[in-house]
Specification:
By secondary structure, this protein is of the alpha/beta class. It folds into 3 domains: 128 residues, HUPs (Rossmann fold, 3-Layer(aba) Sandwich); 125 residues, Alpha Horseshoe (Serine Threonine Protein Phosphatase 5, Tetratricopeptide repeat), CATH 1.25.40; 170 residues, DNA Cyclobutane Dipyrimidine Photolyase, subunit A, domain 3 (Orthogonal Bundle). The structure holds flavin-adenine dinucleotide.
Length: 472
């Protein structure tokens, strides 16, 4: 028998449910395939940094599989529609009996998979796996068998389920034959790629595992106190690996519990576990509410907000030139590294939507185009939370003050100074309000004056949301 593993967002050999299932029969010939779809990726605004991260890990996967005697075919097509015919003919020429793949929960991906299964029909037995989540979407529901709309009861039910039984990790496959030669030079796919800083995101599955182990040893216990301060390296930075499946959430859970067995009971590590559950919440929501993949808000009335179309302000936000230091430092961190601290993602998203009154979907798109950890569920969830358009989102009248956020979470401006060298001469006391200092000193800084006045912007935004909520 020939078993085909279709790799997508699961570029790893450890704890890969589809790969493990394909390898279960020791006599089967196992072949892997990865289909690059640049036009589709463009439509989904995949960032060139994530493309590079995928490319690097694809090469690692190729080598890891070759060492186990498994060939990985890498082929470029245009979009998802092309995958269907290609897979059909591949299965015919390779005499494939069974196809194994791990589910993706986004709408276009699910539609593609449904067509693939239908097209391969009875010739190839298809098996999908809930691999990128701890618990399958649809399995954690209210008493009425509905998806939770509020996070806290979801999280409580989720932890109860984990207490009943943990999703197990599966071992990497054993070598099936002698190692295949791995000196073939792979041709990269045709998609813009941008270098990834290997100090921040070392390449390789083992590197990701090492980072997880290191984080779960001590930092995870301090996470609750440290995670909100962007100048501190207090979070795991594993999002980039989780987003493309170099690491699985099960690996995260088991490593956490190995170091902190009481994390499920609320002790050390519980706050980090809670973040992993936010990740699940947003994935489960995508499946329950496919409209979230269609650029629609969860709360319908919020679609009536009259957003401002101010291209200049949007560009100022993108480039980190708004005149609010914490916002600008964060945007420059994103533009330079492809990653942004979670606290700052909330701050800059709130600023775009609630200070500039720009449509959250513009911000969501820009984030995708820059993030190395771009993930539709988490990104959409984060933006809809900040814009007050989502399930269990911040209420619309809760508006972050960008200056006080800076003062609370980067008191001395250490993070700001790292990204805005032009504020080097500004004393700590004024680091969040450099314009006041410049005025006092009668100086001109090489840094913009705030592009909006927060108090006024806040009033205008509240009015815009209120009008939208009560259409005449
Ligand atoms: P840690 O704090 O160490 O958390 C561990 C893991 O839990 C993360 O790697 C991530 O997989 C998951 N996680 C943590 N917080 C969240 C959350 N709020 N929602 C969902 N999952 C979470 N995360 C992405 O992975 N991709 C995105 O595209 C993305 N876009 C976002 C956009 C906005 C506007 C906001 C507010 C948040 C977004 N997040 C996104 C969530 C969060 O900011 C990142 O997951 C986190 O900053 C990644 O850093 P870390 O790996 O050090 O996280």
């Amino acid at each position: 028998a020939t078993h085909l593993v279709w790799f997508r967002n699961d570029l790893r050999v450890n704890d890969n449910l589809a790969l493990a299932a394909a390898c279960r029969d020791p006599h089967a010939r196992v072949v892997g395939i990865f289909l690059a779809t640049p036009e589709q990726w463009q439509q989904h605004d995949m960032s060139p940094r994530q493309a590079e991260f995928i490319w690097q890990h694809l090469q690692c996967l190729h080598a890891a599989l070759a060492a186990r005697g498994i060939e990985l075919h890498i082929h470029q097509l245009n979009d998802f529609a092309d995958c269907v015919e290609y897979l059909k003919s591949f299965c015919e020429t390779q005499k494939v009996d069974a196809l194994f793949y791990n589910y993706q929960y986004e709408l276009n991906e699910r539609k593609r998979d449904a067509v693939v299964e239908k097209t391969l029909d009875v010739d190839v037995v298809c098996q999908g796996f809930d691999d990128s989540v701890l618990l399958p979407p649809g399995s954690v529901t209210t008493g009425n068998h509905e998806m939770y709309k509020v996070f806290t009861p979801f999280s409580r039910a989720f932890i109860k389920r984990l207490h009943e039984g943990l999703p197990e990790c599966v071992a990497p496959p054993k070598a099936r034959s002698a190692a295949l030669p791995d000196n073939e030079k792979l041709t990269p796919f045709d998609y813009p790629r941008q270098p990834v800083d290997a100090n921040l995101f070392p390449i390789g599955e083992q590197q990701a595992i090492n980072q997880l182990r290191q984080f779960c040893r001590q930092p995870v216990a301090d996470y609750g106190e440290q995670r909100d301060f962007p100048s501190v390296d207090g979070t795991s930075r594993l999002s980039a690996y989780l987003a493309i499946g170099v690491l699985s959430p099960r690996q995260c859970l088991h490593r956490l519990l190995k170091e902190h067995p009481q994390a499920l009971d609320g002790d050390a590590g519980a706050i980090w576990l809670n973040e992993l559950i936010w990740r699940e919440f947003y994935r489960h929501l995508l499946v329950a509410y496919p409209k979230l993949c269609r650029h629609q808000p969860f709360i319908p009335w919020t679609d009536n907000v009259s957003w401002q179309q101010d291209e200049q302000q949007f560009i100022a936000w993108q480039q980190g030139q708004t005149g609010y230091p914490i916002v600008d430092a964060a945007m420059r961190q994103l533009n330079t590294t492809g990653w942004m601290h979670n606290r700052l993602r909330m701050v800059v998203a709130s600023f775009l939507v609630k200070d500039l009154l720009i449509d959250w979907r513009q911000g969501e798109r820009y984030f995708m185009s820059q993030l190395i950890d771009g993930d539709l569920a988490a990104n959409n969830g984060g933006w809809q939370w900040a814009a007050s358009t989502g399930t269990d989102a911040a209420p619309y009248f809760r508006i972050f003050n960008p200056t006080t956020q800076g003062e609370r979470f980067d008191k001395k401006g250490e993070f700001i100074r790292q990204w805005l060298p032009e504020l080097g001469i500004v004393p700590d006391q004024y680091i969040h309000t450099p314009w006041i200092w410049a005025e006092k000193q009668q100086l001109t800084l090489d840094y913009p004056h705030p592009i909006v006045e927060h108090k006024q912007a806040r009033i205008a935004t509240l009015a815009a949301y209120e009008v939208a909520r009560k259409p005449e």
